[in-house]
Amino acid sequence: MATRWETARSVWLEDERSGQFELAESAGLGAVDWRGGAAGRAADVAHLLGASLPAACAHSLIYPEGFAFCPECGKALARPAAPPRPEWWGAGVGEALPKHVPQGLPVTALALAAGLESRAAALAPKPDLALPAAPNAICVFAAANFGFAVQRLLALAYTRNVLQYWDPVARLWHVMAPQEGAASLQFATADYGWLPAVASTRPGDVAIVPAATGLVRLLIDPVGETYRTEPVFDGVLASAPGATRRQIACLVAGAAGTCLWTASPDGADPEVLLCEREGDAGGSGPIPAGGWSRPLYYDGKLIWLHDAGHLVWLPGAPPQWLAWPDGWAPRLNFGGPVQSRDGRLWLIGHDGQAYSFLELGVARGQIEAIAGARLGFGTLLYRRGHPVLNDPWDTETVEDQSENESLVLPLLQNFNGVRNQPAGLVLRFEHYTGRVESALDSLVIQKTSVEWIGQRNVRLDDIIRLARPAECQPFVYDNCLWLHHPDWNRIRGWRLKAVS
């Protein structure tokens, strides 16, 4: 026989002979095979649900939420603490950035600088800690509570339809199994992006994600190690979704060509809009049905970038397709759009003779010629090893002539509101004077330093033989800054607090 205990969110069964408690059901979770597998994860489950654990007795592996003492012997139980942690969905996604900062660029408002810039200088810099790389390493990361009591880390391998869950207690990755009827999470049509379920109160609600069948809502059961999906839009996607303040939108492929699908944030009141061409600047070819960048949201507009042009949508107006000028090719892998001092967005490209910046969002945008390639996004921009602190086409600030023989690739900007002192995480390729395109695409860089740039510059690590550096992916989880690359077998981490 078993005694039934009910808490606000869960139902527990207490075995009258052994005194062991088992989780029978909980909000947001399916049936729990406690004896089959969940028993070995009692500590992780207790943290997720806010349940209690034994501290000085062994009468049960786990106790229901709210239990302070063992009912068998009366000894105090451990109630796992859950300190608040900032969420992470990718820089610039779901964050409270100021209106004048584009959302969708690798720009974060999280307080990273204070902890990193207080670190002592080291002759041989190295990470503070490491995580094993997820089994499927080409992935995107999300760190949030997902409606549970503590924060957890997910790694979605979107090219292989694999969702991975990090168990910090057991220190291993679990591959989550799809529940019956779940949609495939594979998406390789365009750059990946998702819309976090930041306003949801449902346990396990993760995000609206692009999938093989359209847009779906992703929900997880971390106890049963499964996930399920709910349809939001059924159709063929041409891009990842984006969000304005009141609507979500995505480019979709239909019989009439590439269109824009939009709806309210919960998927209600959907509408499909035909894309218009802005005069002769729209070009004569079809609007691409794939290969788009992750969308940006800025100045009330959503912007998708493509090798052939860009698409701009202001809610209440038709979406506009704007092809690039004849002979001008963008360099989308150089970082992303940058901002001039008057707030306009610009993209770097090449016309066959020289590099230049093109104004985004308008037909026949202004063009500013520059001497040499520049890497970066937002207001974190570099020419070779020197920062560009004013307008993107202005002369770089040279503080050390020796940096002429290095190349800096920004990875993450930390918004601080000070344009002439940008802060962020960068890679510095030492003694490199070759073509920028070669460094990003085909070469193996012999020595690269990982650096934090800000009011105080800090060298965090050195990397030997780095290929495809633009695939380095920073993320924040458990009060640490992490750096992931698909080729590495461990994820480097640095604590976001002063290190004594």
Entry summary:
With 500 residues, this protein is mainly β.
Descriptive account of the structure:
The chain is mainly beta and 500 residues long. It has a domain at 2-78. 4% of the residues lie in helices and 41% in strands. It is built from 3 helices and 40 strands. Strands 8-9-10-11-15-14-13-12 form an 8-stranded mixed β-sheet, with no helix packed on it. β36 (444-453) and β37 (458-467) form a beta hairpin. It is globular, with a radius of gyration of 25 Å. The protein starts with a strand and ends in a 5-residue tail after the last strand. The mean pLDDT is 92.
Main features:
500 residues; mainly beta; eight-stranded mixed β-sheet
Topology diagram in text:
Layout: E1 2-6, E2 10-15, E3 21-26, H1 42-49, E4 53-54, E5 77-78, E6 107-108, H2 113-117, E7 129-132, E8 140-144, E9 152-157, E10 162-167, E11 172-178, E12 195-196, E13 205-211, E14 214-221, E15 226-234, E16 236-237, E17 242-243, E18 248-254, E19 257-263, E20 271-274, E21 276-277, E22 296-298, E23 301-306, E24 309-313, E25 320-323, E26 329-330, E27 335-339, E28 345-350, E29 355-359, E30 367-369, E31 375-378, E32 380-383, E33 386-387, E34 406-414, E35 423-430, H3 436-441, E36 444-453, E37 458-467, E38 473-477, E39 480-484, E40 490-495
Parallel strand pairs: 6-34, 11-15, 21-25, 27-31
Antiparallel strand pairs: 1-2, 2-3, 4-5, 7-40, 8-9, 9-10, 10-11, 12-13, 13-14, 14-15, 16-18, 17-18, 18-19, 19-20, 22-23, 23-24, 24-25, 26-28, 27-28, 28-29, 29-30, 31-32, 32-33, 34-35, 35-36, 36-37, 38-39, 39-40
